[in-house]
Amino acid sequence: MKKTFYIILILIMLFPNWIIAQTQIKAKSELVSLNIRKKKLPPILEVSDIRFSDANNNNCIDGMEKCSINFTITNSGTGPAVNMLMKVENMPLIQGLIFEKVTTLRTINSGAKLDVSLPIEGLLSLSTSKAPLRITFDEPLGFPPDPIELKIDTREFMRPELKVVDSQILTENGSVTLGKPVQLQVMVQNTGQGVAENVEVKFVLPTQNVFPNTAEQVSIGTLKSGESRNINFEFLPNKIYSGSNIPITIRLTEKWGKYAQNKEELAMVGSNTKGSAIVFAGDSPLKSVAIIEASLSSDVDKNIPLAARRRSHAYALIIGNEDYTKYQPGLSAEANVLFAVNDARTFSRYAESTLGIAKENIFLLENAISSEMNREIERLAKLIEIENGQAEVFFFYAGHGFPDEFNHQSYLMPVDISGANVTSGINLGNLYTKLTRSSSKHVTIFLDACFSGAGREAGLLAARSVRIKPKEEQVTGNLIVFSASGGDQIALPYREKKHGLFTYFMLKTLQEAKGNITCNELFERVKRDVALNAVREQGKEQNPTVIFSPQIADQWGTWNLLPKE
After folding, report:
1. What phi and psi values does residue 124 have, to the nearest 5 degrees?
2. Both 252 and 138 in a single domain?
3. To 10 degrees, the CA torsion angle through 276, 302, 513, 550?
4. What are the tens digits of pLDDT across the range 267-296?
5. What are the two backbone dihedrals, phi and then psi, of residue 349, each rounded to the nearest 5 degrees?
6. 166 with 148, same domain?
7. Same domain, residue pair 104 and 142
8. What is the distance between the alpha carbons of residues 344 and 363, in angstroms, rounded to a whole number?
9. pTM, two decimal places
10. Model confidence over 45-94: pLDDT tens digits?
11. Where are the beta strands (DSSP E) in 386-488?
């Protein structure tokens, strides 16, 4: 042991510099190792999968819309990304945008990914422009991902405009009667450019003696620009209600609480009421909408011309046969005649207002059975006889016509008579004879029916594959007959207008001319309009016809429908 000590002592004395050098080398090695252990390993960061998300999927930031910018950061380095900052700049500044300018991101470990979502919202003050957005990152070790440069379209806030654009009172007999249910039908439409959300409709009735029969508050949800919704609300006034009208407030609300208009509706007790409006409708919330009319009813159902004079010896029998399935359960719904009742009701209003016929001389039948039709035809014939040559007579029929397959004679079909029992219907030739057996000033007949066995949807014997061309009836006296179609054609419906095609254009012509039109002018315009619409819109042929007796061949065309003194 002593020997070893003396050897080391001798070495130190003989080689002092070598010993010091070896000690320094060892110390430096230990220091380097310590520094390596303390130094952080760097991340390598890359941004990918950059996406923009918005509520209405139009790829822009709209006023009052919440959106987000989404992307993924991947760390392929050996060290983690810790305490990295994300900074967002909007230069040049676009007013009306809200977002977090600085955000601290979560740690991204080596080999890991981080999905980032940057919320961004448009305010009411946002203008239509293009927002340049720059997203940068600060990474403590100096290894941030590359910046993100974005340009996103911005659009000003598109306001919805909720309105009750049309309304009407519907009752069992056409007037409001105390103690009986009343239905208020309203059309709510968004006439603004923006989407209306959380739409609610509330009906407010008088506090006493009027009771709701259906829900007083209805949730519609969302209405896009130009979109509308029909709502039926039923209420019941009791028999001690003392007012002359029943006020109903229609309250509309939507998401923002400021873009809805209320409406006051008055249901007149004991009288007919009906409302209408011209509205603006469109097909896109991103551009100005086109202007069209929207209504619960057709344009010919309102703004009916009023004749300055009345006819003192005029009569009208008006029949709309639509519901054949009520009396003939074996028929399918397609056998019904769409809009026939509406045809008859509207024609009765033109008869009174435009043709100048006294209301008490207008006889309206809806879904008439055989006995009713025969009774009213006989009464009309008797009135013509009593008038002793002074009568002016109008007969209107919308419903099924049908031919006898043996002699091809034509029949008007009451709702309780089937196609298998056609001869129990109203023989058209006999009808002409009854209305002309006594002399009159003139008898004008409008028939919105076909006599081939077909109909607006399907005939009474829809399975029959071959249509019958009916025989043309001979007429006498001062008789003119306007028919919806000729030969084996179908009398088509006009779904958009809620009328028969022939009836619609006949009423439209009377409306535009304010009744001041001759029979020939009426026929030529209706024939043209019906033929064009049938082929252009429905791909079928329909050619109205007119027949008249030889006695008036030189006169009928000049007869004016406007009442004379």
Report:
1. -60, -25
2. no
3. 160
4. 888 744 443 333 333 344 445 554 344 566
5. -70, -35
6. no
7. yes
8. 10
9. 0.53
10. 999 999 999 988 889 999 989 999 999 999 999 999 999 999 999 877 77
11. 392-398, 401-403, 410-412, 426-427, 442-448, 479-483
